[in-house]
């Protein structure tokens, strides 16, 4: 599968009272990387909405491995795992500049038909239809 990585620097206002990256911000980093990955492949949010579909997260797990502090540079990776059925997997890692794994994020997602309010039968279809580079998404 194809993996995409985006760099992020931990900002001071994202930390908690112990000086660690706040737990909710890991999810924001993961979300940022997912959208950057889609945009890199040519899929924009406006295109999804115009097609009448929207990505939805059905389940997310974060495994915290090492603390992150303000000023640290990290790389947030993302790859989609396409299978059969209405859902797909997302595997992500947040890695410090020295190569230390800070967190793993896994998710299950799908694409919601915005009119029917149900998951589309094949989540690969909207991606293939909209991506300028489907291979970048592992399709």
Main sheet: strands, sense, barrel: 6 strands, antiparallel
CATH architecture level-2 label: Roll
As a whole number of angstroms, the C-alpha radius of gyration is 16 Å
**Uncertain segments:** none
Number of strands: 6
Which fold name is given in CATH as the topology?
Answer: Thiol Ester Dehydrase, Chain A
What percent of residues are in strands? Answer: 35-45%
Fraction in helix: 10-25%
Q: N-to-C terminal Cα separation, in Å?
A: 9 Å
Key features?
6 strands, 139 residues, 3 helices, 23% helix, Thiol Ester Dehydrase, Chain A, alpha+beta, six-stranded antiparallel beta sheet
Account of the protein in words:
- The chain has helices spanning 23-40, 45-51, 124-130; strands at residues 4-9, 53-64, 73-82, 87-96, 101-113, 118-119.
- Helix content is 23%, strand content 38%.
- The model has no long low-confidence stretch (mean pLDDT 95).
- With 139 residues, it is of the alpha+beta class.
- The radius of gyration is 16 Å and the shape is elongated.
- It has a single domain (4-137), classed as Hotdog Thioesterase (Thiol Ester Dehydrase, Chain A), CATH 3.10.129.
- Strands 1, 2, 3, 4, 5 and 6 form a six-stranded antiparallel beta sheet that branches.
Briefly characterize the structure.
With 139 residues, the protein is of the alpha+beta class.
Secondary structure layout plus pairing:
Elements: E1 4-9, H1 23-40, H2 45-51, E2 53-64, E3 73-82, E4 87-96, E5 101-113, E6 118-119, H3 124-130
Antiparallel strand pairs: 1-3, 2-5, 3-4, 4-5, 5-6
